[in-house]
Amino acid sequence: MQTIQANNYPIHFNEKAYEALNLHLKVNKYSNVFIIVDSNTNEYCLPQFLPYLETDLTIEIIEFEAGEENKNIETCVQIWNVLTELGADRKSLVINLGGGVVTDLGGFVASTFKRGVDFIHIPTTLLSMVDASVGGKNGVDLGNLKNQIGVINVPTMVLIDTHYLETVPQNEMRSGLAEMLKHGLIYDKIYWEQFLDLKAIDFADFDELIYRSVVIKNEIVSQDPTEKNIRKSLNFGHTLGHAIESYFLENQNKTTLLHGEAIAVGMILESYISWHKNLINEEEFLQIKTTIKSIFDDISFNDNDIDPILELLIHDKKNEYGSIQFALIEGIGKIKIDQLVENELIIKAFNDYKS
């Protein structure tokens, strides 16, 4: 697969990725290398990665406990302290080896340590390959509020090796699939239609689907790196999805959802809203709802859940001037940003989902 040129950094794939990494280490005079992993990638991915690394530089491994609940400023402080203790300086390189939590948090740590050191993302989950590692968004959660603290700062490069997916559980693979479905719904109807029957997909060609998803994300981000316009389209399913994810994260009576599981619900709800705003027709809505529900288990909501979820929308970082901004689809493969939606319609969407 050809290297994709993003805004000021390349995205390399599979074998080419390690060639590019080792050449980069050879020509840049780094003082040392720090590899940030979580407890899962330390066990399952780091042993695969280290044999590819060709360098005489000192390599230090920094591990933190896996899980969205650890994507916070406290973990960052711990890692900044470890970097300091191990002698990291402005010429250090940080390599983030892991899923979306690792790339989000590791990118933020590197972007802020000594006002910024070079970092490279090596995503190891489907979600991080097609979404989290591409586009330069780095950050952490504030309490249960998703991605409230962060920066937009691009990595030196992104290396995507799909062999790491062999270490990923099935529910994590489905989680990443949600973002791929989103890319089709907002940008490429033909790409979306490839997922209408998962049984018909030849998973020997799955690398090509991943590649297309990365191309879509990159094309959108390259037009609008700081999310003033078209990049807002990537928020489809996320306005409600993030609120649902946050609510389930903070509520002890709920099972914590994976990001993609929450976004899958968000896409169904926001497709319902798109239908009732006459942006898509009923046939398109039912196709979206049926397809997503065929892949993801239903999430249970009771009447007491809805109001707290609506309250969490107030904190959505996409809001402007106190108004909740939605990105809705305008026909499959197209998007309409900055849409205001009244609470009554959101409640109807939840009722439809529950029915």
From TrEMBL:
Enzyme nomenclature, EC number: 4.2.3.4
One of the GO biological process terms: aromatic amino acid family biosynthetic process
Ranges where the 3-dehydroquinate synthase C-terminal domain occurs: 176-319
SUPFAM superfamilies membership: Dehydroquinate synthase-like
Cofactor: Zn(2+); Co(2+); NAD(+)
Protein origin, superkingdom: Bacteria
InterPro entries: Dehydroquinate_synthase, DHQ_synth_AroB, DHQ_synth_fam, DHQS/DOIS_N, DHQS_C
Organism: Flavobacterium granuli
Keyword field contains DNA-binding: no
Keyword Chloroplast on entry: no
Gene Ontology molecular function terms on file: 3-dehydroquinate synthase activity; metal ion binding; nucleotide binding
Keywords for the protein's UniProt record, in alphabetical order: Cobalt, Lyase, Metal-binding, NAD, Nucleotide-binding, Zinc
Listed PANTHER family: 3-DEHYDROQUINATE SYNTHASE
Function field: Catalyzes the conversion of 3-deoxy-D-arabino-heptulosonate 7-phosphate (DAHP) to dehydroquinate (DHQ).
Pfam family, one: DHQS_C
Name by which UniProt lists this protein: 3-dehydroquinate synthase
Residues in 3-dehydroquinate synthase N-terminal domain copies: 62-174
GO cellular component: cytoplasm
